[in-house]
Each structure stands twice: as structure tokens, then as C-alpha cells.
Write a structure and sequence with these properties.
single chain; alpha+beta; four-stranded parallel beta sheet; 13 strands; about 25% helix; about 20% strand
Amino acid sequence: MALVTCADLPDGDQDGAALVAGLAARGVSARWQVWDDPSASWADELVVVRSTWDYTHDRDAFVTWARTVPRLVNPAEVIAWNSDKSYLRDLADAGVPVVATVFLAPGVSAPLPATGEFVVKPSVGAGSMGVGRFGSDTLPEAQAHLATLHDAGRAVLVQPYLPDVDTAGETALVYFEGRFSHAIGKGAMLPARVANPLDRPTAGALYLLENIEAREASPAELAVGAQVMQLLRDRFGAELLYARVDLLPTPAGPLLVELELTEPSLFLSYEPAAVDRLASAIAVRA
């Protein structure tokens, strides 16, 4: 089988070696393959998307590639839907508690928040790259950030910055085959300023460094996760190999900020059984 990555990470992410070893223990030989390598042949083998973190600079090519792979997981229809954060509309319409989001297509303008802090991010992005945190005292910088994205043809999301994340952090719930595996906590990480959001990432800058720790998910967080998993079953008609539900804390309860189904970090090293769970799930599919 093939584990798919990007050219800057030819051996996968930080979980790559452990996952390959876990698969080998189950009699599955796994190789790393760069998704846009023109010499690659996918044949009839199982192909699992992992660290393809450069796709954000050519999403159309990535989605087109996904549709050519016969046995891709998560499948191409999931990637096409999930690789643009406009999917948040669908989740909110289905009743999932989602962070309030304003969607601004290129050429569409709207007043930015005049009070409080807020976040401006591209609708196609990964690893928090191109995400800016602004406030009423930095509106010109926020407008410039928005204009840079729009001028490049990028749609933009504007969301409030939820202050509880500064103390409680973000929670990510990881699921394999629709079943909860483990949770991790992320410390607040968004800078008040960002570099050019259109700079192509390099091996050392595919994502912002994160402060990660193992975390026990709360009943309220698990309830949101279960709601999302059921929505995915209904939408796609099957369990997905992996999913990550990213939640932010508020006094009224957790809100979903992102749903990662395309190429999420799964933080396998933070749960002793996580490698076994994922490797077993892949082996069954293989």
C-alpha cells in the first residue's frame, strides 16, 4: 500500500515511522509516495492520504489527482468537500455548534469587526498557515491581509477569536473508523501578525509549531464529536478511516472550528494504543 505525502516530507510526518512499523507487524508493506510525483503509479493498491500539506497552493490539482486514484482513503469525494473550509456552512446548517463564520468570496467585501479580536484565514489552508489574528487596533493590517488573499483569488473566512482558548487551549478529537480513539490539547498559537499568506511553504514551514499534550475529552466535547461522526455517516454512507474534530472552548460549550478529514496530524504518539488502532484499521482495508 502507499502512504501519501508531499515532496518536502518524503518519509511522512512525525508519526510516519511508527505507522509503517505498525503496518509491517500486520503483514502490510507500506511505502511513502509523493502525491504529485509524475512517475508515481497507484494501480490497485490501497492509498492512504497522510502528510500532503502542500496541496493548499494548488487544491484543484490535488482534487483532480484524488479522483484518479482507484482505492483512495479518505476517498476523493471527502477530500473535495473537506479541503475547502466552506464545509463549515454544511455543518452549521446540520445543527453542529460551529464557530460563527463570515464567508467572503473574492470580490465580496464586508466590514471587519470593530471591537474585539478576530481571525482572518483562507478557506483553503492547512497547518494554520496564512491565518491572522487581529483586533480593532490592527484593522488596516487585517484589511491588507484580506486583500492579499482576495487578489490571489482566495475565498476568506472571518471568525471571532474566542478568548477562552488562551487559558484552556483547543481540543482535537481523533477518530478511526468512526470510533473515538484519543484527544489532544493544543495551546493558543495564533500570532498577532502573519507573513505573506501566499508564500509557498517549505519543509521547515508547512505548519505553525504547536504546543501539544494528551488530554481527556469532556462529555460535552465527545457529544459534539458523536454528532459530527453521525453527520459524516449520513453524508458519505460509510465510516471514514480517520477524522479529527477540532473544538474551541466557550462558556456555552465547545464549538467546532475545523473538521479535518483530508490530511490531519493524528498525534499517534500521545495515545499508547493509537498506532495499533490505525494500523489495524488500514490492514483490514488493505
